[in-house]
Each structure stands twice: as C-alpha cells, then as structure tokens.
Amino acid sequence: MKARIDVMLKTGVLDPQGAAVQHALGALGFEGVNEVRQGKVIELDLADGTSEESIKEMCDKLLANTVIESYRITLL
Amino acid sequence: MKAAVLQFPGSNCDRDMYTALKRAGADVTMVWHKDADLPEGVDVVGVPGGFSYGDYLRCGAIAANSPVVASLKKHVERGGYAFGICNGFQVLTEARLLPGALLRNGNLKYICRTVGLAVEITDSPYTSAYAQGQHIRIPIAHHDGNFTADADTLDMLEGEGLVAFRYLDNPNGSDRDIAGILSPNRRVLGMMPHPERAAEPAHGNEDGALFFASLLEAVVSA
C-alpha cells in the first residue's frame, strides 16, 4: 500500500518562499495570483495493513513539525 | 565542568564549540550521533551548528530523532544543562526541548555577517557574566533562523524572562526580534548567533567568550 502525505505550513505562519513564488508569477505577467503557499509531498510505500494510526504517528513524530506545519494523509 | 559536544554528519561548528568550551576551562568530549549514551557525569551538552543530515526534511529534524538526542532528552529531564547554537538551536526546537520553530529567513537569503544583540537577562547560566541590556556583537550564518512561535508562547517567553538575546536590527524576520531563548528552568538555551566564533583574540571579537565564562561559573558553583 502507498500513502501520500501533504505537509503545509499552518495558516497564519508566514511562508516567505510562497511569497517569492507569487512575486515571480507576477513578474511573468500572470495576474490575479492572490497568494501562493508552498508545501511538500511525501510518498510512503508501506507494508500492507499499516494502520492509519501508525502513519499519523510517523507524521507527528517526524514527517511534519506540528508547531508550524499541518499535514494531510491520503491512502493511495 | 564536564562538557560534551555532539557531532552529526554535517555538523561544522563542533570544533569551534569544543575550543571555546576548552578555553573557558571545561573538560570536553566529542560524542558521535550514533552513541546511545552520553559520557558518565556530563554536566553540559553542546549541540553545534552546521547542516546535520544535510538539513533533509527540515533543519534539525533528523538529528532530533537520533540516538544521542534521546540521551540528551534524559539529561535535560534530569535537570542537566544543554545549549544549541544555530543548527543546534534548530535541533533543540525539533526535539521539543525548546518551544517554537525556526523558519526560512524572511528575505529568503542565507545571511553571514556579524550582528548586534542585546543581552535581555543576566540571571541565567549562559548570560550571568554580561551586564543587563549590554550590546554585544556576534556572528550569524544561517538560512533558517527566523524564530517563530504562537502568540501565547511568545508572551510566556517574555513574561517569564526566557528571552536571552534579542537582535538590535532583526536580520531574519524572527518574531519579536528574538535571537536566543531559555527553557523554563533556564538550563537549556538555544540561539542562532555563534558566540563560539567570537571567543578568542584571533577572532578579532571576544564578545562571545563571556557566554562560555558564564556557563563555567554557573556549573562549577552549582
């Protein structure tokens, strides 16, 4: 089984990289880009039957820093 | 005073930290990240700057889950002293030994220069040799030194007098100009600037030497 983890900075946490990308899009002439938030995607190839609970633990302990980041688990 | 300096793959300020502690009079041992135990009787653990594990995932995240940091957590639970400089600060926040987190610098640039700091409190084992409010100059060299925490945590840090150093001219966007913080028992300190790079005459600046002198004094008299 596979799982995909989307990790994003929490709402309210400044994302200077996202802001830089937004400016770059503006410089390319793309109008109406109100905000860009940049995150990361982590794909896990897991032994069949790995519990969602266990994946959540992986996120809390390592994959995301929950002080500043939120995550979303998608089983593929 | 017995001190240990942790070494991770990618640490690059470990020898500077070793030398600064040694010059202040400490008996210093280097400890490799795979070692499960700290040396017997260690009083102080230093977590040095660098790019532990190539900054993979997040700065300090992999180091925070290494065997030696599990021992460091026990050391801190027992009331031991520990300090992290630069990447070491990132490791201590990732290990939840200090609150908050260090984000990418607000201007997205790696900044390497000497900055002015204000010593915010002197009743701590790391700052007692400075004068209250003293302005000092200490080098910084980081890409991810933008300290952030939620408003309640920031208020708690300020209210309890746990902000050790503040930037005079905030270089990286840190909340409330915070450059270094202490744990509630004041035995754990994290800071982005490098006092070990301003600690002997050859550095051309000895403002950081009092950091190590304070620590020696605190531990030896404790």
TrEMBL record, chain A:
SUPFAM superfamilies: PurS-like
An individual GO BP term: 'de novo' IMP biosynthetic process
Nucleotide-binding is among the record's keywords: yes
EC primary class: ligase
Major subcellular site: cytoplasm
Subcellular location: Cytoplasm
InterPro entries (UniProt xref): PurS, PurS-like_sf
The protein's role, per its UniProt record: Part of the phosphoribosylformylglycinamidine synthase complex involved in the purines biosynthetic pathway. Catalyzes the ATP-dependent conversion of formylglycinamide ribonucleotide (FGAR) and glutamine to yield formylglycinamidine ribonucleotide (FGAM) and glutamate. The FGAM synthase complex is composed of three subunits. PurQ produces an ammonia molecule by converting glutamine to glutamate. PurL transfers the ammonia molecule to FGAR to form FGAM in an ATP-dependent manner.
Protein name (record): Phosphoribosylformylglycinamidine synthase subunit PurS
Gene for this chain: purS
UniProtKB/TrEMBL annotation, chain B:
Superkingdom of the source species: Bacteria
Gene Ontology MF: a single term: ATP binding
EC number: 6.3.5.3, 3.5.1.2
SMART domains in alphabetical order: GATase_5
Catalytic function, reaction form: L-glutamine + H2O = L-glutamate + NH4(+); N(2)-formyl-N(1)-(5-phospho-beta-D-ribosyl)glycinamide + L-glutamine + ATP + H2O = 2-formamido-N(1)-(5-O-phospho-beta-D-ribosyl)acetamidine + L-glutamate + ADP + phosphate + H(+)
Cellular-component GO terms for this entry: cytoplasm
Binding partners and assembly: Part of the FGAM synthase complex composed of 1 PurL, 1 PurQ and 2 PurS subunits.
Biological function: Part of the phosphoribosylformylglycinamidine synthase complex involved in the purines biosynthetic pathway. Catalyzes the ATP-dependent conversion of formylglycinamide ribonucleotide (FGAR) and glutamine to yield formylglycinamidine ribonucleotide (FGAM) and glutamate. The FGAM synthase complex is composed of three subunits. PurQ produces an ammonia molecule by converting glutamine to glutamate. PurL transfers the ammonia molecule to FGAR to form FGAM in an ATP-dependent manner.
UniProt protein name: Phosphoribosylformylglycinamidine synthase subunit PurQ
Organism whose genome encodes this protein: Celeribacter baekdonensis B30
